[in-house]
Amino acid sequence: MLCLGLVVLAALAFPNAPTMDDWSYMTSPQTDNTKLISLLLPFDTYWRPFDGIIGYINGLNTRLFPLLNHIIIVTGHIVNCLLLYKVAILIGLRQRGTLSVMIFFMFSPGMLGTVLDIDSANQVYALLWGLVATLIYIKTVKEKYNQSFPLYSYILFSVAIFIGTLCKENAMAFIVVSPLLAYSIGLCSFRRSCRDIVLFLSIAVIYSAIRLSLPTDQVNINTEYIDGGIRQIVRNIGMFIVFSWLPWDFVSILHAPSRNIFLAALTILLSIPFIANIVRHIISNIRDRMTLGLLCCMVILAGIHLATIFTVMHTYSSLCIAALIIGMMMERIKKPVYAVIICCSFLLPATISDAHHAIKAYESGETGKQMARLTISQCGGEPENVYVIRVDDGYPKYSMFCTIPADAFGNGIAVRYMSDYRWPNIIECKEIRLDEKDRIDYMVSRAFAQQYQSVWIVEGENVKVINQPSKR
User: Which of 20, 84, 97, 289 could form a disulfide with 93 if both were Cys (CB 3.0 to 4.6 A apart)?
Assistant: First the structure.
């Protein structure tokens, strides 16, 4: 199963070229090789040194990008499937349940925003180390039932949590999730669970002390994360529920230019038995300690994203708990024929959805590369500094699958990628609305007055290049 998953996911992910944040995030090639120390230190609101290391390696050989990122992410996802399988065994699931856990987590459309992406290694490995910590905790409490948490286990658990947090900060949620999961499945008392959570909070204190002691060049807080209000939170909760459980083709549902009523209806209809069984299972077992505890773990792992900003990528961590609930559901189905029907009711729409999302992600990446080729063909040289004027024509996007062409172009960074990161060294971008196009001539003149060597006007998938007039 793991080998099959590796082959399928590699086929879906590896062809995808960078788009959106992939172009500018730390895991993209960091070509200034003197910056390694700064890549390992906190930057803005992040401290993610492993992302910095990936970017540094890509910078040493830019041809590794983005294949290296894809290999790291897909491999991590497969390892997470294996770790989740081990967790499922430890919590008492049998063969049908454990296999269902792996299939759901491996192929659920909820994983696509992470596994098909290029800058999401932090999300994958935060979960990986969180699952390692959970395995350590569950094995320990099984062996030391109602005894104090031993020092050696505390050290191992702390190391796993700390490494996961250096991948992405939400790994710290496993400080609460691991004991809560053990309590939910009856491995420890509620009192023991709470006592261990208080003990493990010392990990957060130590992490915070280390982080605050390190120098930070700058701290820029993105107000998009905190300005949404109640409306944003309600939207986040809706996305959390929908992307966690429904194997629908959201490309055909949410992205108007790609809308396909047939595919949308087909995935919805095929998934009805699966969804009906989930709803029945959760409602009928909502008072069961295990089901209620797992649902609480899901919410905790989604955590800060529910209160700030939630995207398709942010489903990934909590998806592991959804998979455990699916495993429980499948194990309680008595008739094998019905179990097969439910499994097919998930796999068939999930396959359609995964394939369609992968195709659209590939097309978005190819759009960026084609725009870069178009730009290079018009430059007539290798300008060192360029000014990009981006015209917002209102084209909608759906996550990293269906991107705005200018985002696929990386506001010009795709040219740097296509030139093996030789040029341009400086890219300044300014966005204007469609009704502001009459300002373009003035902006071009101003850019040349500021010594920009080339101006790139981006509208839709078209790029018009205006080069600095030669001086006589």
Answer: 97
Alpha-carbon distance of 277 to 330, in angstroms, equals: 9
**Could you tell me whether strands 462-467 and 454-459 are parallel, antiparallel, or unpaired per DSSP bridges?**
antiparallel
Hey, what are 469's tokens?
Answer: 């007039």
Instruction: Kindly state the tokens that stand for 265.
Output: 């209806």
Contacts of 96 (CB under 8 A, 6+ apart): 330, 331, 339
Tell me the Cα Rg of the chain.
Answer: 24
CA dihedral 105, 110, 116, 119 (to 10 degrees): -100
Residues 6+ apart with CB under 8 A from 100: 323, 326, 327, 329, 330, 331, 343
User: 462: how many CB neighbours lie within 10 A of its CB?
Assistant: 11
- At residue 49, the pLDDT reads 93
Residue found by looking up tokens 């999302």 in the block:
357
Contact 246, 278 (CB under 8 A): no
What does the pLDDT read at residue 33? 67
Question: Burial level of 152, CB count in 10 A (0-12/13-18/19+)?
Answer: exposed
Assign 267 to helix, strand or coil: helix
Q: Which two tokens stand for residue 379?
A: 């430059």
pLDDT along the chain (472 residues), means of 10: 87 95 93 80 85 94 95 97 95 92 95 94 96 94 74 92 94 95 89 91 92 71 58 87 94 94 96 96 92 94 83 91 95 90 96 96 96 94 94 92 95 94 93 92 93 94 89 50
Length of the chain (residues): 472
Q: Count of alpha carbons within 13 Å of 394, Cβ hemisphere only?
A: 3
